[in-house]
Amino acid sequence: MIKYFLHPVDARLERGIGVLLLFLCGSLFSYGLRALRRTTGGRRGSGLTGQDANGVPLRRSKRGWMWNQFFLLEEYTGTDMQYVGKLHSDGDRGDGSVRYVLTGEGAGTLFKIDEKSGDIHATKRLDREEKAYYILHAKAVNQFTNEALEGESEFIIKIHDINDNEPRFTKDPYMASVPEMSDVGTSVIQVTAIDADDATYGNSARVVYSILEGQPYFSVDPETGLIKTALPGMDREVKEHYQVVIQAKDMAGQMGGLSGTTTVSITLSDVNDNPPRFTKTLYEFRVPESNELGSSVGAIRAMDADIGPNAEMDYRIIGSDGPGMFDVTTNRSTQEGVILLRKPLDFEKKRQYSLRIQVENSHINPHFYSSGPFRDEATIKIVVEDVDEPPLFERASYIMEVKEDAARNTIVGSVSASDPDDKRSPVRYTIDRRTDMDRVFNIHAGNGSVFTLRDLDREESAWHNISVIATEFNNPRLMSRVPVYIRVLDVNDNAPTFATNYETFVCENAKANQRIQTVSATDPDEPLGGHRFTFSLAPEAAGKANFSVRDNKDNTAWILTRRSSYNSLQKSVYHVPVVISDGEYPMQSSTSTLTIRVCTCDREGNMKLCNPEALTARVGLSTGALVAILLCVIILLIIVVLFAALRRQRKKEPLIISKEDVRDNVVSYNDEGGGEEDTQAFDIGTLRNPEAIEDSKQRRDIIPETFYPPVRRPVLPPSRDNNGDVRDFINQRLQENDSDPTAPPYDSLATYAYEGNGSVAESLSSLESVTTEGDQDYNYLSEWGPRFKKLADMYGGDDSDRDS
């Protein structure tokens, strides 16, 4: 059996050694009993525990290990390793045959065991706050055979706590607020401190709170750390911020305990406990009488010691000697009362106003009603200053009327304006010509009478809107305007006419007194009672009339036939003069002619055919006819364009397109040849041998010679050699072209290569070149100097050299 031996207890633990021993004894006894019931084996002695399923007796072996716990002080400061305890097996007889083995948490690093004696030591300084206990396993084995003498046993090394940690607050600093004027005992904030020491043993982790700074305003509960107000009537306007220092001390606050502190910043939040107050009882403002409506006259401000919404105020007028003249509004950003002008000021009528203004908090706290009224009053004096004002019209606008037949210079009406200032400056009137571009009206500069300058026509313009300007004689820059609306009254000056252009026809088979048309009239005049038109046949046509006019008394009339059977061959068109009169004064009348055409109709009276004149006049050209005519015009245009294009293609182009287009040939033709083998354009050999010209050759750019007899050219005598002068040849050709009637009627350019006489190298032109290379003698190249030596070597030498 392994036994555990504890080391002597440190002197610091003497106070609890008795309690600890009792606890250990009870624990060992109870744990030993439980271990014996759970395990088998151990000591060699055994006892019967029952029978198995086959009836064989069972025996339980007793173990030689004993459960135990080791206690070790944390934060050991000694120089030697701290002794933990000792392991001993019953099988150890002290002969060194037993070896003790330690495994588990910290074995070999934090804890070491003497294999022979079983002594356990801690190698390092341990901290209970890092790890409170370690679980290890002990085993006794044979030194020589490594066989286990006892079963493995588990034991615990528990770190015994000492007071080595001070309380620490969860925050530093704390921020809190409490309303001002709070009652005593109002909770502010709760602070919390945590001690890392063991709270289950002693008072090392028992924390007590106390206040170091902040009295007598605040207090703290020693057990919970809840901070409360301790002084009544704390006013934010007197002191707003407080710094409170709270201490947390372990060991229940006893001497020797460790402590920690934190700072709590407490702010008194504002409540509406102060009324607004004006800084003065009388305010005075001066304002010009020319201020516009809605403009600011001045601003006043009451002072409130509160802040935020508690300092918001409302201003209102509670008394005034000018009702409705002024108003007051609150500027929410500045909490000022702004006085506004609501009616025009007039220095000449009233030069001073007095207002009574009241200010009151917008949000009142009922808790402070007893503190008094949260309002204040002040008097406002407003002095009106005189300003040189422009003339003032008696009316805001004028409406005038004039008849359209009024003569020129007729007075339509008048306007009136005066200087509102005390000096009463004279006023001059003018018309803004931008509103009367046609200069129909004018105004008398002195008395403001408006009169006409031109004849009026209501049918052309029924209203005229002009603007009259009034200026002071002494200060023309001061002016005012007024709109004048002139209505032109109607006069019966227009005769009525047909309402539309009627197209009337009568059937050949028409009967007498048959209605063929209903006519009406129109008149641009507008009489008050409405139009009353009368219709009648003109007197000059009444005796021989084929038609009659019946007035319906409703501003319409019927056109009736006076006989039957009209013949379009005898007369196809009738003209009926109709006299139309209005019933106004002076009466206006006009004669309108109604054109009636004779047409062939069916039995129902529907028109079938009219004479060509009538048909053309009535029907006109249809859409299909117009489309057909348009297509014909387009086709003709296309034919003309194609014909013009063909004519341009047939036109011959000149032989010489450009003055710079010079060829080796005599004549430049606008057709492409077949290269050097093409001899139809011109035979270049004729330049060397003019006698070899073929007379049968025909030129392509002229009419064939069948229409004109060929010109006989004189034969030149043969030259002395083939390198004769070409000058005579050119002159001969020039004469031939001048006298040739078949030559084209325009000039043509011929170019000849001619070097002239006296050249050392003679002519290099291909015109005099021989046809074969063998006939040419190149020995002269060697006489030209070193520059032609290469050519002389290539082409010079004997014929034998070239043949080889």
TrEMBL record:
Domain Cadherin per the UniProt entry, residue ranges: 89-169, 170-278, 279-393, 394-498, 498-614
Coiled-coil portions: none
InterPro entries: Cadherin, Cadherin-like_dom, Cadherin-like_sf, Cadherin_CS, Cadherin_Y-type_LIR, Catenin-bd_sf
Segments crossing the lipid bilayer: 12-33, 625-646
Pfam families linked: CADH_Y-type_LIR, Cadherin
One term of GO molecular function: cadherin binding
Annotated Gene Ontology cellular component terms: adherens junction; catenin complex
Keywords: Calcium, Cell adhesion, Cell membrane, Cleavage on pair of basic residues, Glycoprotein, Membrane, Metal-binding, Repeat, Signal, Transmembrane, Transmembrane helix
Biological process according to GO: adherens junction organization; calcium-dependent cell-cell adhesion via plasma membrane cell adhesion molecules; cell migration; cell morphogenesis; cell-cell adhesion mediated by cadherin; cell-cell junction assembly; homophilic cell adhesion via plasma membrane adhesion molecules; morphogenesis of an epithelium
Membrane topology category: Single-pass type I membrane protein
Compartments it resides in: Cell membrane
Annotated PANTHER family: CADHERIN 6 (PTHR24027:SF428), CADHERIN-23 (PTHR24027)
Function: Cadherins are calcium-dependent cell adhesion proteins. They preferentially interact with themselves in a homophilic manner in connecting cells; cadherins may thus contribute to the sorting of heterogeneous cell types.
Name of the featured protein: Cadherin-10
Organism: Nothobranchius furzeri (Turquoise killifish)
